[in-house]
Specification:
Blueprint (H helix, E strand, L loop, with lengths): L1 E6 L3 H12 L4 E8 L2 H10 L6 E6 L5 H11 L3 E4 L6 H11 L2 E4 L14 H4 L2 H7 L2 E4 L7 H12 L3 E11 L13 H9 L2 E5 L2 E5 L5 E6 L3 E7 L4 H8 L5 E7 L2 H12 L8 E3 L2 E3 L1 H8 L13 E12 L2 E12 H8 L3 H18 L7 E4 L6 H9 L4 E4 L7
Parallel strand pairs: 1-2, 1-4, 2-3, 4-5, 5-6, 6-17, 7-12
Antiparallel strand pairs: 7-15, 8-9, 8-12, 10-11, 11-12, 13-14, 15-16, 16-18
This protein binds NADPH dihydro-nicotinamide-adenine-dinucleotide phosphate.
């Protein structure tokens, strides 16, 4: 059917690329392009028996001209951005210049301010509209599947949704006292920031990890979870009819929190550069260099993840509750694609988002968040491509 250019060759990209190769009818040809060209070549070698034709390239995705040259040469139907949030805008600029569709999994974050929000990417709406191309923002799990779940709940079960609680549980155990399941820099910036939730059109800010709840997750059991700010709250607050409050909770074990507090207290999570032996270094980037590479956690991580959304609202004048979630097993993911479940639950929806645009199932000129499209084909694809979901109409609620 077509061609996709995948930028980045880390944990999430590795899964998305495996999935594209399993789906060779749609992804006839892909180009894997990343900062470290040898990683792309190594993955190509691993997948050499796939029907999908694979090219590789080295690219610095901070450089718009390099990206334009790469896109003009490969001529993909879609660019799937699986590099870091810092590269979103340069890649969008290159897509505009070459009139190519764009998909990502995380919203733009300026490298020097640890603040992620959609405003920078939403400013591209008119330009994408005029160019007649689609940008699909946030096609991972959260954001991503959580937005699709919300659109699905809205379409099939509610006239108005009043409350959404997004619950992200990782009950995986990698055996290290402290490691992050995806890019440590992005992960630590997210969890050391103030928390916030969206209520009646306003943000309510909390101190980091201030709000704690215990939830009994299906197929996992009771876990401590903490309220965090999360990017999909911003778009769901605009796109869900009748919404009054949206909260996001993530589980953390005590060992992770104790280590994080200690690292924070000594200044290792700071993004302010310091001078060390005549050289400027960013403590958080140095910390990243000493922590285990998330890609190396796959073989040692056991247990499951459960990510889903609890909705409360009104249907035909009556109160209604609905919970939809996916449970994913770290070891099964590893057996299938050589990665743990965190990368898997992000990489699969990234492939599906690209497929929705390549097949023309989702179309439109402009910049869109995932809940703005018809959720049904995406929900079917989740079942088909490794992230089956379950539902419950009488879930335990979060107080
Ligand atoms: P990794 O750090 O494992 O991979 C990032 C990749 O991007 C690496 O291959 C890296 O290259 C490459 N890269 C970084 N900078 C550049 C650059 N300037 N030019 C070209 N390539 C570059 O991260 P993950 O795979 O864990 O995460 C990928 C994305 O997915 C992130 O944006 C993350 O926020 C997002 N994410 C989204 C989730 C969701 O549910 N929505 C959940 C988890 C992650 P190199 O190998 O040289 O370092």
């Amino acid at each position: 059917m077509g061609k996709a250019l995948i930028i980045g060759c880390g944990g999430v990209a590795g899964v998305a690329i495996h999935k594209c190769c399993q789906n060779s009818e749609v992804f006839e040809e892909i180009c894997i392009a990343s900062r470290t060209g040898s990683k792309c070549d190594a993955l190509k070698e691993k997948l050499k028996d796939s029907k999908t034709k694979i090219k590789t390239a080295q690219v610095n995705a901070d450089n718009v001209e390099e990206l334009i040259a790469l896109i003009s040469d490969f001529k993909p139907d879609v660019v799937l951005n699986l590099a870091l949030p810092y590269q979103d805008l340069t890649i969008m600029d290159a897509c505009l210049a070459t009139k190519t569709n764009y998909v990502d999994t995380a919203n733009y974050e300026p490298p020097d301010t640890a603040k992620f929000e959609y405003k920078w990417q939403w400013e591209y709406r008119e330009k994408f509209k005029e160019a007649g191309i689609t940008a699909l923002l946030g096609s991972g799990f959260d954001p991503g599947v959580t937005g699709v779940f919300s659109a699905y709940a809205m379409k099939h079960y509610f006239d108005e949704i009043h409350y959404i609680d997004i619950l992200d549980c990782n009950a995986g155990d990698h055996g290290y006292p402290f490691a992050t399941n995806f890019n440590p820099e992005i992960n630590i910036r997210e969890v050391t920031a103030n928390g916030s939730y969206w209520e009646n059109g306003n943000w309510v800010e909390t101190r980091p990890m201030e709000i704690k709840r215990v939830y009994d997750f299906p197929e996992i059991g009771e876990k401590d979870m903490y309220l965090l700010h999360h990017e999909e709250l911003e778009s769901l607050g605009l796109n869900i009819r009748g919404i009054k409050r949206i909260r996001f909770f993530m589980t953390f074990g005590q060992s992770y929190l104790t280590h994080l507090k200690c690292l924070e207290n000594v200044g290792m999570t700071s993004i302010e550069p310091i001078e060390y032996e005549g050289k400027q270094i960013v403590p958080l980037q140095f910390l990243k260099a000493v922590l285990p590479d998330p890609a190396s956690l796959g073989p040692r991580t056991v247990g499951k993840t459960n990510i889903g959304c609890i909705f409360r609202g009104i249907k035909d004048g009556k109160e209604k509750t609905y919970y939809v979630y996916n449970v994913c097993d770290h070891q099964e993911c590893y057996k299938e694609v050589g990665s743990q479940a965190i990368s898997y639950t992000t990489g699969v929806p990234a492939m599906i988002g690209a497929m929705m645009l390549m097949k023309g199932i989702w179309k439109g000129s402009g910049v869109f968040n995932i809940e703005e499209f018809d959720p049904d084909p995406f929900m079917d694809a989740l079942n088909q491509w490794g992230l089956p979901w379950k539902e419950s109409f009488e879930p335990k609620l979060v107080d």
